[in-house]
């Protein structure tokens, strides 16, 4: 061999242990948010703020080998914070690889903050009319279109309740019964559209080693009653399909609430002999096929909007 011959070194000539250190430096952070929005808890609690860039996800696109080596590190070693699950639910239905990747997540944080519901409610009220109009005028007539429009009308009705009460403002002139009805509707919306939906998704999808639950702001939207002692039973899937997390840490609960939460988790163990109605809400499970069609309709409408704007 000539003395002038040079050996070409590449990234993959590095030992695997060194490559993994580089992956961790680029991809592992104290916390990774799965949006659509960051919980209000992080804007209000200075002890939880941290100054760091997000993970460098572009690294995963550089080569198939890097993706194969680095993605498990990204998914298994980060703590992922989920506020609302619809984005992940849709991605799981549409992209098999996303579903497979989600199975690798081992550490999850759930924040129950009523201010997130306020944000979600306003976002839905601002955007539902436009979405409904797009479906009305662009989707071909079918039973799925009619079902989607009916569902959106129900959502508008659910969220178009009286404004959330602010104790600093002048009192509203409403009867006790009206106030109670508004209060109960907001809680049902939390259960159906936010926390309950997220808990259903989490129980179905993940095999967790660590679950971090924050219930410091787990109240009704008026702040007049705590929900921490009941919220963990919400959702239409009642058991943890892949088993309970190995370790569960709950922040912000009283001793009495902790006892109820612990009992609730204990009752969500999946084991042989459970009846169907003990595992999931039978009526909601029947809507699963309809949801897929509804999702497909929304996808076609979205594509039409994109094509018009090109």
Would you mind describing this structure in some detail?
By secondary structure, the protein is an alpha/beta fold. The chain has a domain at 11-118 and 167-274. The chain contains twelve helices and five strands. It has a five-stranded parallel beta sheet with strand order 1-2-3-4-5. α6 (114-138) packs antiparallel against α7. The longest helix has 30 residues, at 176-205. It is globular and about 90 Å long.
**Helix-strand pattern:** HEHHEHHEHHHEEHHHH
Widest sheet: strand order? 1-2-3-4-5
Radius of gyration: 23 Å
Report the span from N to C terminus.
Answer: 58 Å
Proportion of strand residues = 5-15%
Give the structural class. alpha/beta
Q: State the shape.
A: globular
Number of strands: 5
Mean pLDDT: 85
Protein name: DUF7730 domain-containing protein
Pfam families: DUF7730
InterPro entries: AN11006-like, DUF7730
How are the SSEs ordered, and which strands pair?
Blueprint (H helix, E strand, L loop, with lengths): L15 H12 L4 E3 L6 H4 L19 H14 L1 E4 L3 H9 L1 H7 L4 E5 L2 H25 L4 H17 L16 H30 L4 E5 L32 E5 L3 H12 L9 H4 L2 H4 L2 H22 L1
Parallel strand pairs: 1-2, 2-3, 3-4, 4-5
Helix pairs in contact: 1-3, 4-5, 6-7, 7-12
Give a brief description:
The protein has 310 residues and is an alpha/beta fold.
């Amino acid at each position: 061999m000539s003395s002038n011959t040079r050996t070409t070194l590449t990234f993959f000539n590095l030992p695997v242990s060194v490559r993994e250190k580089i992956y961790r430096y680029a991809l592992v952070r104290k916390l990774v948010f799965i949006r659509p929005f960051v919980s209000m808890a992080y804007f209000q609690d200075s002890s939880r703020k941290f100054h760091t860039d997000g993970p460098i996800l572009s690294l995963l696109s550089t080569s198939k080998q890097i993706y194969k080596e680095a993605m498990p590190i990204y998914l298994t070693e980060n703590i992922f914070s989920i506020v609302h699950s619809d984005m992940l639910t849709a991605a799981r239905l549409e992209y098999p690889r996303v579903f497979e990747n989600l199975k690798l997540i081992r550490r999850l944080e759930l924040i129950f903050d009523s201010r997130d519901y306020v944000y979600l409610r306003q976002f839905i009220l601002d955007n539902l009319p436009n979405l409904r109009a797009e479906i009305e005028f662009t989707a071909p007539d079918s039973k799925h279109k009619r079902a989607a429009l009916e569902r959106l009308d129900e959502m508008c009705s659910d969220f178009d309740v009286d404004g959330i009460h602010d104790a600093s403002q002048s009192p509203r002139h409403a009867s006790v019964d009206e106030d109670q009805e508004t209060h109960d509707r907001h809680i049902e919306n939390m259960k159906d559209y936010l926390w309950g939906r997220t808990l259903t998704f989490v129980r179905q999808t993940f095999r967790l080693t660590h679950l971090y639950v924050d219930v410091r702001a787990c109240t009704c939207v008026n702040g007049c009653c705590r929900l921490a002692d009941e919220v963990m039973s919400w959702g239409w899937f009642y058991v943890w399909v892949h088993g309970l997390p190995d370790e569960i840490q709950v922040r912000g609960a009283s001793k009495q609430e902790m006892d109820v939460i612990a009992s609730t988790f204990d009752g969500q163990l999946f084991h042989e002999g459970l009846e169907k109605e003990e595992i999931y809400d039978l009526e909601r499970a029947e809507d699963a096929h309809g949801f897929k069609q509804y999702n497909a309709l929304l996808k076609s409408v979205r594509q039409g909007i994109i094509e018009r704007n090109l």
